[in-house]
Amino acid sequence: MPVSQSNTLLRMFGSVNAAITALGGSNLDQGLAGLAAAATDRDYFSNYAAAGISNFYIRNYPQFDKFFVGTNDGQSSYDSFQGGIRLYTSLIKASVNYTWSKSLDNISTDGNSYVIPLDSLNP
After folding, report:
1. Is residue 42 a part of any domain in this protein?
2. Residue 29 sits in which domain range?
3. 82 neighbors 104 (Cβ within 8 angstroms)
4. Does a structural domain hold residue 32?
5. Cβ-based neighbour number of residue 13 at 10 Å
6. Total structural domains within the chain
7. 3-state DSSP of the chain
8. Which of 63, 70, 100, 106 is 20 to 30 Å from 13 at the Cα level?
9. Is the pLDDT of residue 14 over 80?
10. How confident is the model at residue 108 (pLDDT cuts 50, 70, 90)?
11. Distance of alpha carbon 26 from alpha carbon 32, whole angstroms
C-alpha cells in the first residue's frame, strides 16, 4: 500500500526511504519510537517549516530539552566545634587552636547546577 502524500514524515524527508534512513531503520524495526521521535525533533527540527509542520509537532515547548524541578525538600545540617588554649608567661607565648566541622545534606548545589546524590533515599 503506498504512503499518502499527506504523511508528515514523507513531507519532511521527501521519500519513505529517506525518512527510514534519517530516523534509523533499526529504531523503527525494534519499536523504539521514542528514539525516532527524539531524533526527528533534535536533528530535523529545521525541516518542520518547509513541510508545513508546527514547531510543537513533538514537544509542546521545543526550546527546552530538559526539565528540572527545584523544591525546598532538601535537608542540611552543619555542626562545628572550635576551641583554643592560650598560654602567656614572661618567657613564652603559645596558642593552640582546634576546629572540627561536619556537614550533611541530601542534595547540594555549586551555585550553577545541582549535584545529584548517589542515593537520595539514603543520604
Report:
1. yes
2. 1-59
3. no
4. yes
5. 20
6. 1
7. CCCCCCCHHHHHHCCHHHHHHHHCHHHHHCCCHHHHHHHHHHHCHHHCCCCCCCCCCCCCCCCCCCCCCCCCCCCEEEEEEEEEEEEECCCCEEEEEEEEEEEEECCEECCCCEECCCCCCCC
8. 63
9. yes
10. low
11. 8
* Bigger pLDDT: 54 vs 60: 54
Residues in the chain: 123
Torsion (CA) 49, 52, 57, 63 in degrees, nearest 10:
20
In a domain, 87, yes or no: no
User: What is the distance between the alpha carbons of residues 55 and 58, in angstroms, rounded to a whole number?
Assistant: 8
Q: Which residue's entry shows cell 514547531?
A: 55
CA separation (Å) from 7 to 14, 53, 55, 116? 10, 11, 17, 42
Which cell numbers hold the place of 90? 614572661
